[in-house]
Write a structure and sequence with these properties.
The complex is a heterodimer of chains A (about 150) and B (about 350). Chain A is mainly alpha-helical. Chain A contains 5 helices and no strands. The chains are: A mainly alpha (about 150), B alpha+beta (about 350).
Chain lengths: ~150, ~350
């Protein structure tokens, strides 16, 4: 798509913020236009990385599940971890990647709760891996505009 | 807005049976918290030979919002603190009958001529008075914490637990339920935070205190010399542990200047010291850390709840989508930091 999506959103956001918003009344609507422009700025940032960060994260989660599964003693959880680890992306559409990501992160919550209840050394190792992945996941999702 | 002005006029005439020529005008919607539609307006009327004008604020329940709250509690909080060391506008009318303006609402005095923006406070000319604003901000919060709910007359009007020992559980249960109902995607960091909070509850407060519920830069009015002139947005006011307010006020999400100063104003240590001095209470570090982590659970619940409303289409105010996208990840980072997992 040309002009590129990022460039297009940058220009539209700039027009809204600096040309449209100052002429809008009342103040509530003016602020809404300004917020919409800033929203477009974040959409622009997300748009470029949308597929990449989801593929990276889904791959990392599957690898983590693959390492954790053999140690997990609860049979049903282990079976689902093994199945998730062996799966691959059915499509690279962002909507499909997002669906996979939601399923993987839901399973991550279960695994995390499970290892918190285990005192063995392997569980502490998986727990450390999970926290590392969660830390990395916040970096993947971070916006340059964020207050923190 | 003409229709709304006419309907406000009719309502005001009903509430002022001895007044004549009651006319609402200059109705203007403003951003005044994301939980209710907020309008300012002028009300003119005659009483006897006198012609009077009041500048008022209308807070009306919207179809959907960031926070589902009880307007009666908010109204009660304004009424309770009016005329005390905690500056608040006068609460005027509370109306639960939707026949007047389609949704329940309340009316309060407008404190005009002041600034509320968290972006303005970190820039000149206001930034020069940051330490004064900080001193007043946490001193007022200390006054809220030290207030006696019985003497204020808010027991039974503000929601809260039966016992101080249940303060943490009531709040954590409530905001966990909001996440359960509204999350659009799994939240592994906040789920881990919730489990951690349940494993190690905080010590209870000695008694129940008034908790503002959203005490932060952006929810008070300040003047050109940095003086705080009005504490607003009491929609989440309740009875509970005063450390909840302190923790919320120092949450990293409100570091608007992105330099570590809490609320864009001062150091975390100074804010705590100011609060302790004003309240006469001690902020036990372990208990405060529990409430700081809870603040991130509550914050995330609010952001995803707004995103849910926006996605469902019940409220298309861009502030809901903006807050949800802008702050969800930042709130996760806050939670990681509080749990010692950010680095």
């Amino acid at each position: 798509m040309k002009p590129e999506i990022g460039k297009l959103l940058e220009i539209v956001a700039g027009k809204l913020l600096f040309e449209v918003a100052p002429g809008v009344q009342p103040a509530y609507r003016q602020q809404s236009v300004g917020l919409t422009a800033m929203l477009l700025g974040m959409v622009r940032e997300e748009c470029d990385r949308a597929a990449a960060r989801r593929v990276e994260e889904n791959t990392a989660l599957r690898a983590l599940f693959g390492r954790a599964a053999p140690r997990v003693t609860e049979p049903e959880l282990r079976r689902r971890l093994e199945a998730a680890a062996a799966a691959s992306e059915p499509s690279l559409l962002v909507s499909a990647l997002e669906k996979s990501n939601d399923a993987l992160r839901a399973l991550l919550i279960e695994l995390h709760a499970h290892v918190e209840g285990e005192s063995a050394a392997w569980a502490r190792g998986v727990d450390d891996e999970i926290w590392k992945e969660l830390r990395t996941s916040t970096e993947r999702r971070r916006f340059s505009l964020a207050p923190f | 807005m003409q229709d709304l002005a006419a309907r406000i006029s009719a309502y005001a005439a009903h509430k002022l049976p001895h007044a004549r020529d009651v006319v609402a005008s200059d109705v203007d919607r403003i951003h005044g918290g994301a939980s209710r539609e907020t309008y300012r307006f002028k009300l003119r009327f005659r009483e006897g030979e006198r012609e009077l004008e009041r500048r008022l604020i209308l807070r009306r329940d919207p179809p959907g919002s960031l926070i589902e709250t009880d307007r009666a509690a908010e109204f009660a909080a304004y009424r309770a603190f009016h005329g005390t060391a905690v500056p608040v506008p006068e609460a005027v009318w509370l109306e639960s009958d939707a026949k007047w303006l389609d949704h329940p609402f309340f009316v309060m005095e407008e404190l005009s001529g002041f600034e509320a923006s968290p972006q303005a406070i970190i820039a000149p000319p206001y930034s020069a008075f940051a330490e004064r604003t900080a001193r007043e901000k946490w001193t007022i919060l200390g006054a809220i914490a030290s207030a006696d709910p019985d003497k204020l007359g808010v027991v039974g009007l503000l929601p809260g637990p039966a016992q101080p020992a249940d303060a943490w559980r009531r709040e954590l249960d409530h905001w966990t339920r909001v996440i359960d109902e509204d999350e659009l995607a799994p939240q592994p960091i906040i789920r881990a935070a919730i489990r951690r909070l349940r494993r190690a509850p905080p010590p209870p407060p000695k008694r129940l205190h008034v908790v503002h519920g959203d005490y932060r830069t952006g929810n008070f009015l300040y003047d050109k010399e940095g003086g705080i002139r009005g504490i607003l947005d009491w929609e989440m006011a309740h009875l509970g542990d005063p450390l909840e307010d302190l923790a919320w006020s120092i949450n990293r999400i409100w570091c608007w200047a992105r330099d570590g100063r809490v609320g864009g104003l001062t150091s975390k240590e100074n804010a705590i010291r100011l609060w302790e001095t004003a309240s006469g209470l001690r902020a036990d570090p372990e208990a405060l850390r529990w409430w700081e982590l809870f603040s991130s659970v509550k914050g995330l619940a609010i952001w995803i709840s707004g995103g849910h409303e926006y996605q469902e289409g019940s409220n298309k105010d861009p502030v809901l989508a903006f807050s949800s996208i802008w702050l969800t990840n930042a709130q996760d980072r806050c939670a990681l930091e509080t749990m010692g997992k950010l680095s």
